[in-house]
Hints:
mainly alpha
Amino acid sequence: MTISLILFCLWLLIAGFYGAYPSRSNHWRGAYVLIALGLPLLAYVFYENGLLRGSLASAAAASVLRWPLVYLYRWLRKKIRF
């Protein structure tokens, strides 16, 4: 297992633990931190392991950060409408 996959698995564990604890701010601050750390890490996974493993890592990250992705999709859908 490469170092990028080990770091990504660690990122997934931290994200899972953070999401399991209740928060008054609805976890948005943590989501911003996870996104800021996760995007370069995903690029590193793609670079070191190729398209298939990078795509699987992207799917795993999307399952962890599904609500920010839902809100991004809704925001983009509003902006694109004419």
